[in-house]
Amino acid sequence: MHNCEIWEVPLEAGQLQFNLCLIRPRFIGEIVRLKSQISGEDLKDILDELLKTESKQHKILLPVFSLIAEENMCNVWMKSGIVIDFA
């Protein structure tokens, strides 16, 4: 689609894995055109299916560290063995 932002969100419902596509038109004319192409029943069906999905619990692990005044983030990453490719 032209003049739209499209985001894909990976979801899982039971054994089914799929991507939810979120489309945001950039111009008012695109919104009006999209509105004319989708019916309320279509939107209701989409939302009903989303309500049936089960979310999975995930943990996001964040490293905890502090920077000494003379260090920079690159040095901290290199000490941790993280490879940085600036190419």
H/E element order: EEHHH
Determine the structural class based on helices, strands and strand pairing. alpha+beta
Number of extended strands: 2
Report the principal-axis shape.
flat
Tally the helices. Answer: 3
Cα distance spanning the termini: 32 Å
The largest sheet has its strands arranged as 1-2
Q: Main sheet?
A: 2 strands, antiparallel
Structural Rg: 22 Å
Helix amount, in percent?
A: 25-40%
**Low-confidence sequence ranges:** none
Proportion of residues in β-strands: 15-25%
> If you average the pLDDT, what whole number results?
70
Written overview of the protein:
This protein is α+β, with helices and mostly antiparallel strands and 87 residues long. The protein is built from three helices and two strands. The protein has helices at residues 28-37, 40-52, 73-79; strands spanning 4-13, 16-25. It has a two-stranded antiparallel sheet with strand order 1-2. The chain starts with a strand and ends in an 8-residue tail after the last helix.
What can be said about this structure in brief?
By secondary structure, this protein is an alpha+beta fold. The chain is built from 3 helices and 2 strands; from the N terminus they run ββααα. The protein is 34% helix and 23% strand.
Keywords:
87 residues; alpha+beta; two-stranded antiparallel sheet; 2 strands; 34% helix
